[in-house]
Amino acid sequence: MKAALGKKIGMVQIFESNGAAVIGTAVDLSEGYVARKTKDVNGNNHVELAYGKQKKPSKSQTGTYKEIGYVPLLKKDLKVAETSELMALETGTIISPEIFALGEKVVISGITKGKGFAGVVKRYKMKGGPRTHGQSDRERAIGSIGMRTIPGRVWKGKRMAGHMGTINKTIKGLKVSLIDAENNLIVVSGSIPGAKGSLVLIKSK
After folding, report:
1. Distance (Å, rounded) from C-alpha 3 to C-alpha 79?
2. For the segment 4-47, what is each residue's pLDDT rounded down to a tens digit?
3. Which residues pair with 6 in a beta bridge?
4. Domain ranges of the chain
5. How many CB atoms neighbour CB 164 within 10 A?
6. Minimal CA–CA distance to 34: which of 82, 72, 83?
7. Which of 87, 95, 123 is CA-nearest to residue 185?
8. DSSP H or E stretch at residue 18
9. Which residue, 48, 115, 122, 147, shows the most beta carbons closer than 10 Å to its own?
């Protein structure tokens, strides 16, 4: 497995060798590194990827990461095989975008943008109520949500208005379109979850 933590920079347009224009997303890997390598009780190998550094860590955290001399700001633990490219990297090593290959398919995970409190029309693409016959206040309403005497309640999981966004989202099948080793940047085709500056995890087999 290949993997790296990076910061979403934003959308860009690049041109491939055949002249085709590709819309992609740039990800900065300059602060992503290998924080720890451990084994669990079952003998499985774990690699902890990290991004950034904490300014005021606790003593216990400092002891945990004494090998690298600082405490990660954000981290992600991955179970990997013995033959994984991550196992070959030394602790504290900055993960270069060259760990991925040009044209390679990757999977990217991140936290989506927060949309705040949203109604059912925006949140679940419901069509709303009728717009005629005096229904001036029903256009974006949810409509009937309850039952009759049995069960006499609203089912759990009913699609209703509420908080939208800020969830874990994974996008598969994205392609590595550009690798800039000098600036520690990688560009993947299409869009990825999260706002500009948010942390994303890039993985490939």
Report:
1. 11
2. 999 999 999 998 888 889 899 999 999 999 999 988 888 899 99
3. 200
4. 2-113+167-204, 116-165
5. 17
6. 72
7. 95
8. none
9. 48
* pLDDT tens column, 38-86: 888 888 999 999 998 889 899 988 898 988 988 998 889 999 888 888 8
Domain 2-113+167-204: give its CATH code. 2.40.30.10
Task: Give pLDDT tens digits for 126-140.
Answer: 998 888 888 888 889
Taking the model in full, what pTM does it have? 0.85
At CA 193, angle to CA 191 and CA 199, rounded to 5? Answer: 115
Edge-first strand listing for the sheet containing 45-53:
32-39, 45-53, 72-80
Inter-residue contact 192 to 31 (CB < 8 Å): no
Residue type, 120: V
